Amino acid sequence: MAGGQTKKAGGEGKKGGGETKKGNANAGGGGKKKEVKKETGLGLSYKKDENFGEWYSEEFFDAEIKKLKIKNCYFPLFVSPTVLQKEKEHVEGFAPEVAWVTKSGQSDLEVPIAIRPTSETVMYPYYSKWIRGHRDLPLKLNQWCNVVRWEFSNPTPFIRSREFLWQEGHTAFATKAEADEEVLDILELYRRVYEEYLAIPVIKGKKSELEKFAGGLYTTSVEAFIPNTGRGIQGATSHCLGQNFAKMFEINFEDEKGEKAMVWQNSWAYSTRTIGVMVMVHGDDKGLVLPPKVAAVQVIVIPVPFKDADTQGIFDACTSTVNTLTEAGIHAEADLRDNYSPGWKYSHWELKGVPLRIEIGPRDLANSQVRVVRRDNSAKVDIPMASLVEQVKDLLVTIQKSLYDVATQKRDACIQKVTTWDEFIEALGQKKLILAPWCDEEEVEKDVKARTKGEMGACKTLCTPFEQPDLPEGTLCFASGKPAKKWSYWGRSY
Ligand code: 87F
User: Fold this and answer.
1) Which atom of ligand 1 lies closest to the CA of 98?
2) 19, 208, 372, 392 — which has fewest CB within 10 A?
3) What pLDDT is recorded for position 50?
4) What is the pTM for the complete model shown?
């Protein structure tokens, strides 16, 4: 959903993940999308010089999973109670969040029907039917859909909402080794969605036993951090389910030796929460700040007519500027409304987070130049019309990088390494993202949660980063004093 989802929020609607390119009429070079699309061998389908717009806002995640031979599909929204209860253990803990349809009009339904909170129970009965022999494997499906979870704790737009959009991938393999490999391949794609598109630094790691998806074998995640609130936030997850679901749903196959075996499964998801994290990380007191790569409008052109100036000339220059940029594949629009002042328009488009504003007034017209203003740092520069495209492209690239660098600096300034309980409590009070040596015992994590419970919510593990600092022999757990096994990130979270 990297670009796609963000665009949806900006009003450039798209259908599902699979059809993202088709309806995108303003993507520059109008109408030639299919023909232009060819592999460059660099992991991108568009060349920067041939189609800048598509190169820049490619539907990254969907294209990448297609390269991994994952097919898009769609399963129904409604789940029958019998199917839902099939995997009781897994659903039990989540049961209060399941929404049920109990009426049609005024009449009670004979059998209430659930709305999917996730699609395991809808999909896996078919996996059991479709998978017979080793040649049916791997089975790799993804769906872009909505799910409903009846949240009770403070719903927050995009971050925790009762309905949200996501992609959920569900794959089945003959061997654990294949499943293990895919878990990390997908996690890397999630990292890239956050870092390369949303300009948000994330930490890749493994969840603790307490925080993992209980139905699976192990859970990996990418974790982001919101400096202003001092809270961690899970950006996406990639689970190895092991054979738990295969047992419950009887997903068996005949292996190469003709023996009956059980599949190894994974599931993975990221959601519209990405939008919430992006708003929280980059937004400022004037409103949204969108990274150019995911901005539906990358450049807004605003006429600045003065009294007695050549108003028509200025408006024409705005239109031709938009045309020039659009032809170069840049998503540009002009705000030519005559019932709002330039100042009002500046605020309006700042609120919407448009990365670049171009102002054209009488002086610019006379000098064949435009004034360009960056949304992220308000820097202004005059650009000659002759080098407009080149310089706007460079600025968009610069802004994308700068947003990532600034976000990384702020995040890193919040990371605090501690080794004792006192240091831990002090860092927690300072809203830090805490890296601490831990004995990796579930009881100790529960104890930390209990001891830090307060108005602000308890502190828990966010992840054990794959990138581990040195852990000298004899290092003790900050919470239990037992020998530490690893460094883990701790913090309050969303
Ligand atoms: C709420 C109600 C019912 C989370 C729920 O993470 C069931 C569930 O199974 C539930 N909330 N979960 C866990 C979801 C696991 C897994 N599903 C596929 C993922 C990735 C995508």
Assistant:
1) 2
2) 19
3) 64
4) 0.89
